[in-house]
Specification:
CATH class of the largest domain: Mainly Alpha
Shape: globular
Helix content: over 70%
Strand content: under 5%
Distance between the termini: 38 Å
Number of strands: 0
Number of helices: 16
CATH topology of the largest domain: Ammonium transporter fold
Number of domains: 2
Order of helices and strands: HHHHHHHHHHHHHHHH
CATH superfamily of the largest domain: Ammonium transporter AmtB like domains
Structural class: mainly alpha
Largest sheet: none
């Protein structure tokens, strides 16, 4: 057994909570406990109900991985917490904080953790794909199977003056269903704690998505809510964390990934039945990173 395995199973009361908050940080690809705590703080301030759903999902995913003896390194780094956390957040975002939504979130989180590991074993860079697939099922079951109503709006505990800059931070906040700028600000701080490059890439990606939305004449209300920023932000953060030959090459790949994610979001949103599934979620980010990874292999060959 490795030292990580020994530590995880010898001291689960300390190792598992750390894995849980790292799992929340891994929503934006950061295996950092402080980042996860700042994300959670942003959720509590922006929409406390989604914060509860996120925490439940991350806990279920982490405990599922621990109980089923997934690899200790992956558990410790939060790799089995982020998709379940997003599933828990989505269930509450879709239907509110109530018993049926929590049950759907718990079951979905466990399935997402299993799917994350299954894809990893097959060497698939899944990113948030398990979340997307499971959240779609949760939405369909909730709406068409259980007849659940949509969630009521929850006012942020702390709000900031709304201006042109608000869309930028909303674009980052929407990664975890947040439409309050204060949540996005705390998310950026969380990214900066893990690394300035990740924070800068996230802001740049969200900015690119928003500017492209303006240039292509998308709905102003959707732009203000940050709905065109989050996929580009995630794609930019991912590419910023990958090695490149030069700093300028790294910036170029970040920009390309953000642009591709925006284009894919527009394309996927046109698919018939997407609203029935609950929206595109982070699928454009996942496919964009796959496409750019393939393009990089061709360019660097």
């Amino acid at each position: 057994m490795t030292s990580t395995t020994n530590a995880l199973h010898a001291h689960p009361r300390t190792a598992l909570p750390l894995a849980l908050v790292r799992g929340i940080g891994q929503i934006m690809l950061q295996s950092n406990g402080w980042t996860g705590l700042l994300f959670l703080l942003g959720l509590l301030v922006g929409n406390w109900q989604v914060a509860v759903g996120t925490l439940i999902g991350a806990a279920v995913g982490t405990l599922t991985a621990y109980t089923l003896r997934f690899d200790a390194q992956g558990i410790t780094n939060g790799l089995y917490g982020f998709s379940p956390a997003l599933v828990g957040a989505a269930a509450v975002f879709f239907f509110g904080l109530n018993l049926p939504a929590v049950v759907l979130g718990v079951i979905g989180a466990a399935v997402a953790a299993w799917l994350q590991r299954t894809l990893a074993q097959r060497k698939v860079a899944a990113y948030t794909l398990p979340f997307v697939v499971v959240a779609w099922v949760v939405h369909v079951v909730g709406v068409y199977g259980l007849g659940l109503a949509g969630a009521a709006d929850v006012q942020p505990l702390v709000d900031l003056p709304v201006g042109a800059w608000a869309a930028l931070f909303n674009g980052i906040g929407q990664v975890i269903f947040q439409g309050a700028p204060v949540a996005g600000v705390l998310f950026v701080i969380g990214l900066a704690v893990a690394g300035a490059v990740s924070a800068a890439a996230g802001v740049l990606g969200a900015l690119i998505g928003i500017l492209l939305a303006i240039l292509t004449g998308q709905a102003q209300a959707d732009i203000a809510l940050g709905l065109f920023g989050y996929n580009s932000a995630l794609a930019a953060i991912t590419l910023a964390g990958q090695p490149a030959r030069t700093a300028w090459a790294a910036v170029c790949w970040v920009v390309v990934a953000a642009v591709v994610a925006f284009i894919l979001q527009l394309l996927f949103s046109q698919f018939t039945g997407m609203d029935m599934l609950g929206g595109v979620l982070t699928l454009p980010f996942v496919v964009a990173v796959w496409m750019v990874a393939g393009l990089r292999r061709v360019v660097n060959a």
